Amino acid sequence: MTKQFLLDGQPVPFEDGQTILEAARKAGHYIPSLCWHQDFPPHGSCKLCIVKAAGRHVSACATPAKEGWEVESNTPEMNGERRGLLQMLFVEGNHFCPSCEKSGNCELQALGYEYEMLTPRFRHFFPERPVDASHPDMLLDFNRCIFCELCVRASRDVDGKSVFALTGRGIHKHLTVNAESGRLADTNFSKDDLAARICPVGVILPKGRGFAVPIGERTFDTETIRSKTLKEEES
Amino acid sequence: MSFELETAANRESLRRVAIDPVSRVEGHGKVTLLLDNAGHVKEARLHIVEFRGFEKFIQGRPYWEVPVMVQRLCGICPVSHHLAASKALDPVVGATRITPTAEKIRRLMHYGQILQSHALHFFHLSSPDLLFGFESPVHQRNIVGVAAAYPHVAKEGVLLRKFGQEVIRVTAGKRVHGTGAIPGGVNKSVSATDRDLLRKDADQVVSWSRDAVHLARRLHESNSPLYDEFGLFRSHLFSLVRADGAMDLYDGHLRLRDARGQIVRDGLPCTDYEQHIVEEVKPWSYMKFPFIRDLGPAKGWYKVGPLARVQNCDFIPSPLAEAERQDFIARGDGEPIHAPLAYHWARMIEMLHAAEVVRDLLDDPDLLSDDRLTSGPKGREGVGIIEAPRGTLIHHYRVGEDDLISYCNLIVSTTHNNQAMNEAVRQVARRYLDGRQLTEGLLNHIEVAIRAFDPCLSCATHALGKMPLAVELVDEHGQLVDRAISGG
Fold first, then answer.
1. Which residue ranges form the domains of chain B, and what is each CATH number?
2. What is the CB-side half-sphere exposure of residue B455 using CA atoms within 13 A?
3. Reduced to 3 states, what is the DSSP secondary structure of residue B217?
4. Are B34 and B26 in contact (CB under 8 A)?
5. Which among A131, A203, A215, A218 is the top mutation candidate for probing chain B, defined by the most B β-carbons within 10 Å of its own β-carbon?
6. Is residue A136 less than 8 Å (CB to CB) from chain B?
7. Taking CB atoms and an 8 Å limit, are A134 and B402 in contact across chains?
8. Among the CATH numbers 2.160.10.10, 3.40.50.2300, 3.10.20.740, 3.40.710.10, which is that of A3-74?
9. Where does CATH 3.10.20.740 sit in chain A?
10. Does A208 contact B at CB distance below 8 Å?
């Protein structure tokens, strides 16, 4: 007999080793994420997949499903937590959607809409993060980094280059380039690397290409991040 | 004569009256008047009180973001900044000439914007003053009052603006702050469905625009002494014109006429603007004062915008607007018309021209083509000049080897009109306010003069917000004597 847990009262089947997020999405239930990627081990840093399982707040991407658990996800309480997390992510960096090339294709922005984030709520940090335009093909705009480490993991585990790393602690944490000069041009980074196209926000972007896709034809102009994620899960 | 009333001799002993903020204009400004004990005006200044700093923070950003970023200077005519920046950055991607499709789509977007912005200004912002009188009851002096007393006028104004906004949506993706133009061309063509949607209303829009010219003309001619003399001062006229002297609001070369109407500079290439225009900074305003370099600050200032353009060009290349222009010029009897209130009439002639251009462009099959982008050997510098609804708009950028903006200079339409607006304020203060008991209606005269220029003060300081007009009368000890609140 298949094991199952209850997600918002709905039975969700799972196999041993599957996380709550994997089992839920496979069964057609949306749990949001930013730092999770199916090709990499769970990271658990963005916390947007937060659910209440057996009375405790856990990251759905990193918590194995358990038989008989009652899990709360799409509830006012949990969605409120997610909205708060999104608001923190927005004020921590410099996210100026109006002039960002990633606008319309950005997962952070799409989640802001999905969870009805109407105000920043918290005081903006306005961190000083200069861009790195040294590379001939790619631009690094650190202002938009959410520390998901997808580029770090892709560069290290797939591209075999370890171009990126997080450095600093706590409030001073930031993305850095693994070169003595700290410049992307002084690494063997290539526009064809997986790390060059995995950023869920607008940090790593090809140069010279801005707003080439008109409004109305960008990814999240035509569907929500919820429907896009579930559609991808089905295919 | 020029600059009289700019700075009073004994400022400390004078009574200060402030109109703060000026209402029914775009952005945030204030007027201060210094009066002596007899109520005589000794100083009058239009101040721009906000500082925005776009030129500074654009530096260090990648060039391809700029046309979308700088349009946030303004919510009324963002298309002007969007297109001026795109034009300036075309050479950076090696597009010395863009494709016919790209140019026509940009022109369509621009003339759609001229239409909506001119309609907004005339019907929503200025028509209450013109239809009801400058001292009419303040509760009536707004677009809601116009809708109650002249419903067809208000309706046509609202629908004209709506049509212009739709043209922008079709070409830029959104009515406000779209993304249609990119360095080297445009990112989308016009669909046949959207073209047909606009074409369906285009003839009606031309007809309503013509009615609007006739309304502005009727208002002017029915009260000539007021309209011809109110805030009158003489100055040079400055604008772009096409190579053959035609009115062209998207591209061309620079032309300057003197106050008598003689062309004194012509054929100036846009890229040479820095050789001819200098901006002076005055300590009391965040808005600079441009003037023609070799004429000097006292004589070299000028007017821009509809009143300048309609008289600076040799002809308007659309028949209905050209016929209206000829009637307008005839009124000057061989001399240029300098009356600030004539701006409204000229503005409506331009709106009619924009409606005709939009209608004709909609029949052009190039709009539907996919030939949208040009590229070539990269450049490092570009100047883009466009005739925005309020006047000549200059964008100038330099781009570093790393593709980041290293230099940005913006001279916006309202900035060109800075000295002109101050002159108009002083003329009105001298003629209508001097020695009189100040009332809200009298102070509105000052605002009427400023509104004629359709200033966009937020753009000109490179303000957000909307506040009611508060007028405070303060005595020489700083004590509040009287306070009136209106507008908003």
1. 63-416 (1.10.645.10)
2. 33
3. helix
4. no
5. A215
6. no
7. yes
8. 3.10.20.740
9. 3-74
10. yes
| Chain-chain contact of A98 with B177 (C-beta, under 8 angstroms) | yes
Place of tokens 């101040």: B47
Q: Which of B235, B223, B486 is nearest to B341 (CA)?
A: B223
- Distance, in Å, from the CA atom of A19 to the CA atom of A30, rounded to the nearest integer, reads 14
CATH placement of domain A100-222: 3.30.70.20
What are the start and end residues of each CATH 3.30.70.20 domain in chain A? 100-222
Cβ–Cβ < 8 Å for A199, A85: no
Burial (CB count <10 Å: 0-12, 13-18, 19+), residue B298:
exposed
Determine, for residues B187 and A211 on separate chains, whether the beta-carbon distance falls below 8 Å. Answer: yes
From first to last of its 235 residues, chain A has per-residue pLDDT tens of 689 999 999 999 999 999 999 999 999 999 999 999 999 999 999 999 999 998 999 999 999 999 999 999 999 999 999 999 999 999 999 999 999 999 999 999 999 999 999 999 999 999 999 999 999 999 999 999 999 999 999 999 999 999 999 999 988 899 999 999 999 999 999 999 999 999 999 999 999 999 999 999 999 999 999 999 999 988 8
Complex ipTM: 0.94
What length is written for chain A? Answer: 235
Instruction: Decide the pairing of beta strands B302-303 and B236-241.
Output: parallel
Q: What is the pLDDT of residue B462?
A: 38
